[in-house]
């Protein structure tokens, strides 16, 4: 589970399903520590189920949304109500004032009154949720990345897509950030780059990350061209350490035929009676 949640492509919506998997695995174990471990897992799971943001993130992940086994004893209906807190006003939206009875005096206004939308923010997101749930019930997509799903359906569910972009931007753990900090530290340790400005450092890390993603998409996992290109004098101490021990060195370079070094003889000083 730890390896899954520590990936760069992990999502916060995977936390509760991963805990469910650990719980089922511990129950099948015959170890004497399984009961103790199960207690810790259940406690962590209950804490996660009380996190409304985490549950809303699962609701917008097509892999887990509206599947009761993941959130029991919670209800998807209550989670839908929590999604209203993430609805934001659309930019440059024109507010429509409610119609009054005086507007109906004109026959044209009366006949075209049905064209005026009186839907509130809650009504609009509820209508999108109904269509979103119907889509998952009839033909649940098989995208591995939930962002790919919303990228292709942002026209059908504009409000939900904006909320999904915000909630699904959180990874399942901080491992990805810690790896980024490590790469930043490695860059600053180089004598030719430790005086770079913050903007330059950010651009360097961004370009390197984009190159890595491009290599992964092309199926080339080996990063042949390292962006940093460390020279010999910029190499870290760990890279300068030998990869073999003294026994291997002695086996490769035997010292049996080598004459031992003679100790330097101290010069003899002659003293005369006058010196005494």
TrEMBL record:
Feature: compositional bias, Acidic residues: 215-248
InterPro entries attached to this UniProt entry: HATC_C_dom, RNaseH-like_sf, ZnF_BED_domain_contain
Compartment list: Nucleus
Domain called HAT C-terminal dimerisation: residue spans: 138-208
Gene Ontology terms: cellular component: nucleus
Key words, A-Z: Metal-binding, Nucleus, Zinc, Zinc-finger
Primary subcellular site in the record, as a coarse category: nucleus
GO molecular function: protein dimerization activity; zinc ion binding
Region (Disordered): 212-276
Name this polypeptide is given: Dimer_Tnp_hAT domain-containing protein
